[in-house]
RNA sequence: GGUCCCAUCGUCUAGUGGUUAGGACGCUGGCCUCUCACGCCGGAAACCGGGGUUCAAGUCCCCGUGGGACUACCA
């Protein structure tokens, strides 16, 4: 009986910008895999690029993770704070003859690379310093002595077996002249020391994997499992970027998306469970597996995300939806102090809003004290021939006992009947009078939400408008 | 250029040798109806090409083609 190892995954973004859609999905897959296996999810910030890393970015990434509900069990660890460890490992490799100092300048390297490319050779390091047995100098770097024979096999959980000829791999730099480790080295050290069992990341890293495996071996570490998830592409099938619209997770929050919608959308990009489209977080934790992750790149489809968002707005528990939309209402300048009123507004609009921002926009008439009438609608329905109907409604409304959806509908229908007209010719003028628009929630719902008093007030104002005209 | 990955409707995908190739978004026809939505019913829409293997191939193999990634003292 073999010992059962705790599953440990990690998300290791570099803080050089916001958390984007692709990174979020990678984080999500890691999170789900650890949760499904009752393991641990570790967050590590890869900030060894001192030039490009910022604290704001770190903050933004953490915020976005939190918003999505991707909580971490350990960290955030900061790679730059671990350079002493990395350096000591570099030292160890040098001592063991598995790494060496190199004094080739970037300019020389660039020159050689260009020439190799021009002559149709592979632009890999030519080993100039490999056997010179140099020692550290001011601008020296440390290179890994990569084996030039043999084959390195990556057993990828998603893509299967991938073989690389070792002579394709060159002696990569593991420590830069500024003393900081490079990505391929630091990531190996940290993953090994943090006991990461499953490295799940974008498939732009597959070509790095054999180098990293060689490093694991040189360092004497156990090699983790790898799973490379396909990229997310834009509509033109190139790597997703700003050109394709919003790519920042938090931008979607600003646009009125619900985190559940984004998570649900993201998980379905590359992963499927039969025909199922809608997944709660708990369902995902229960069902997620790397075996069901597809191998091919996926195109980001904003329309489907929008549909999911609409779905979640429709299905959210009302209290939760009210909570989510409240800040958006406040931002629009609406008075949200009356809970009962807001509850009604949200109920009226939830089946006709694709985003929270959308909802706030169409909710404006509930909060305005003076309505502006939609021009076409007013011309069509705020006319003398409908004034009588409106007047009747206003007059009789105060006496209406059954102020409910059904009661109001019966009431309006009876007025239509008595005036020998269709409900439509009562409802439409009423709609303009109460909402200023030709499009709104059901007129009965609007009346309930607004309350008798405001309804009568707005009808009177509309009547005045008709007279004035 | 080299290395590596990928390939089912426009898009996301189901499919693990025998299916009328299924679902979803979008598009579209209809129903419902006080408008708009929601909801419901229906429609158009796909196995990149060529060779094998097999009684049988979207599914396995090979070769093309197309797309993508990497090829940094970025991660």
Rounded mean pLDDT score: 93
Strand line-up across the major sheet: 1-2-3
The rounded distance between the terminal residues' Cα atoms is: 89 Å
Shape: elongated
Helix share, percent = 40-55%
Main sheet summary: 3 strands, parallel
Q: Give the helix/strand class.
A: mainly alpha
Strand content: 5-15%
Radius of gyration: 32 Å
Number of helices: 20
| Quantity of strands, as a count | 12
Low-confidence stretches: none
Quick structural gist:
With about 475 residues, the chain is mainly alpha-helical. About 45% of the residues lie in helices and about 10% in strands. Strands 1-2-3 form a three-stranded parallel sheet, covered by helices on one side.
SSE inventory with pairings:
Blueprint (H helix, E strand, L loop, with lengths): L7 E4 L9 H16 L3 E6 L9 H14 L5 E5 L4 H13 L3 E4 L3 H13 L22 E4 L6 E6 L3 E6 L7 E3 L7 H11 L4 E5 L6 H11 L5 E5 L2 E2 L15 H6 L4 H9 L13 H7 L10 E2 L2 H14 L2 H14 L7 H11 L6 H7 L1 H4 L7 H7 L2 H14 L7 H14 L5 H12 L7 H8 L1 H17 L1
Parallel strand pairs: 1-2, 2-3, 9-10, 11-12
Antiparallel strand pairs: 4-5, 5-8, 6-7
Helix pairs in contact: 1-9, 3-5, 5-6, 8-10, 11-12, 11-13, 12-19, 15-18, 16-17, 16-18, 16-20, 17-19, 18-20
The protein binds one RNA strand of 75 nucleotides through helix 4, strand 7, helix 5, strand 12 and helix 10.
